[in-house]
Amino acid sequence: MSAAKLMDYDKALELFEPVLGFEVHVELNTETKMFSDAPNPANERNHDAEPNTLIAPVDLGLPGSLPVVNATAVRSSISLGLALGCSIAESCRFARKNYFYPDLGKNYQISQYDEPIAFEGSVEVELEDGTLVTIPIERAHMEEDAGKLTHVGGATGRIQGAEYSLVDYNRAGVPLVEIVTKPIFGAEHRAPEIAKAYVAAIRDIVRGLGISEARLERGNLRCDANVSLRPRGQEKLGTRTETKNVNSMRSVERAVRYEIQRQAAILADGGTITQETRHWHEDTGTTSPGRPKSDADDYRYFPEPDLLPVQPARELVEELRAALPEQPIARRRRLKAEWGFTDLEFQDVRNGGLLDQVAATIAAGSTAAAARKWWTGEITRIANAEERDAAELISPENVAALQSLVDAGTLTDKLARQVLEGVIAGEGTPQQVVDARGLAVVSDDGALIAAIDDAFAAQPDVLAKIKDGKVQAAGAVIGAVMKAMKGQADAARVRELILERAAQ
């Protein structure tokens, strides 16, 4: 496939106005699926299950099986709707969305169409410079996920060119909330940045509610980005494309920018945009055609005959409203002030997705500075080297316990890094690793003085220099003592003892 022609981004924005829209799917972390009692693979402990082991007759569309609505999923959906500033329907119902795909055993998806659980809301997103942008929400509706296809053979891992495909129905029936925005106008040059910030805001909201792991790399959170362009001064909207299932916030930003440049080049050459889904390619930073994008009529929606309407009691809605956590933007600003971080320090924590880990570490007894140092420093370094999530490596409680050993003088920073590696390797708590490896700092002045005297005996010229006032020469003795102590000495205390011995 030949590379698409792209227009310079600034030139594209001179000629055309971008109009954005987003459909974000949130997998709920309920114990069971949306319409069956099968375990939910979106729940963290079920994530690595073998294919086709988390299934029930309803998930496979077997004859005679009937769906039953997951009450916890309904509560989570209402909480999310409220957090998005939406109105909650007094009565809503499910519908059948008809289309054939091999990983949809029933040949239809149970979703919501004209009667969503939540509607007419808005959410504020914060850009990196602190600018606030309001994103209008059209609806948030409940539905079930489809299964997963693995295409075997071929060069791309996609169905084109594959020898055969494998179907895993574990994901079929996972509870989803789909959040649909209204058209977003006025984004202009900041359209890609706004796209990234919006997805980050949804992630922060659902994590704050505790209703989803919200990990894009695992598909807990999936974004479809709609982009259209219209010539400056034109009222009619342009034809949109929908880039599907982009799996990182950085990729959402890049995909929106790419589509603006690609569409602008086509329109400027007198071409037309095809209304279609498009696939994002992380390796090349490009999109490619998927399928023609269907409109609602093509899905032949009709009310789901096997499910009664959902009619949440107003008392339940108000109970869930009262239980809403602090909004993410307000929480971030409060924590930044409480912790005394600079803008750059706080941005490092936020960009690393480590806000909750740092907060929990501080709550466990660490200082804010130490918590930030560990999470954005050594823990992130190890996570990147092992291609793992930093939050999976170690608990905030163990990080706080590690820092307490440093504060007590039991460990130096260098020894603490060794202890950290032991904790991550599964050797126990920080104290258990210290005991098992014998890593505690040597605090016996007698042992340190003996090592200092040995170093002086081996380097008499250094002792003479120190006595003559050249205290920088103590560095050679400190190095020798640290080597003798296998790094298990406090360098500052060693220096004090060296100067005391030299003064005698």
UniProtKB/TrEMBL annotation:
Keywords: ATP-binding, Ligase, Nucleotide-binding, Protein biosynthesis
The keyword Protein biosynthesis belongs to this UniProt entry's keyword annotation: yes
Catalytic activities: L-aspartyl-tRNA(Asn) + L-glutamine + ATP + H2O = L-asparaginyl-tRNA(Asn) + L-glutamate + ADP + phosphate + 2 H(+); L-glutamyl-tRNA(Gln) + L-glutamine + ATP + H2O = L-glutaminyl-tRNA(Gln) + L-glutamate + ADP + phosphate + H(+)
EC numbers: 6.3.5.-
Pfam families: GatB_N, GatB_Yqey
Superkingdom, natural source: Bacteria
Residue span of region Disordered: 275-296
Keyword ATP-binding assigned: yes
InterPro entries, sorted: Asn/Gln-tRNA_amidoTrfase_suB/E, Asn/Gln-tRNA_Trfase_suB/E_cat, Asn/Gln_amidotransferase, Asn/Gln_tRNA_amidoTrase-B-like, GatB, GatB_Yqey_C_2, Gln-tRNA_amidoTrfase_suB_CS, Gln_synth/guanido_kin_cat_dom
Domain Asn/Gln amidotransferase: 356-502
Top EC class for this record: ligase
PANTHER family per record: GLUTAMYL-TRNA GLN AMIDOTRANSFERASE SUBUNIT B MITOCHONDRIAL AND PROKARYOTIC PET112-RELATED, GLUTAMYL-TRNA(GLN) AMIDOTRANSFERASE SUBUNIT B, MITOCHONDRIAL
Quaternary assembly: Heterotrimer of A, B and C subunits.
Function summary: Allows the formation of correctly charged Asn-tRNA(Asn) or Gln-tRNA(Gln) through the transamidation of misacylated Asp-tRNA(Asn) or Glu-tRNA(Gln) in organisms which lack either or both of asparaginyl-tRNA or glutaminyl-tRNA synthetases. The reaction takes place in the presence of glutamine and ATP through an activated phospho-Asp-tRNA(Asn) or phospho-Glu-tRNA(Gln).
Sequence similarity: Belongs to the GatB/GatE family. GatB subfamily.
Protein name: Aspartyl/glutamyl-tRNA(Asn/Gln) amidotransferase subunit B
Organism: Microbacterium capsulatum
GN (gene name): gatB
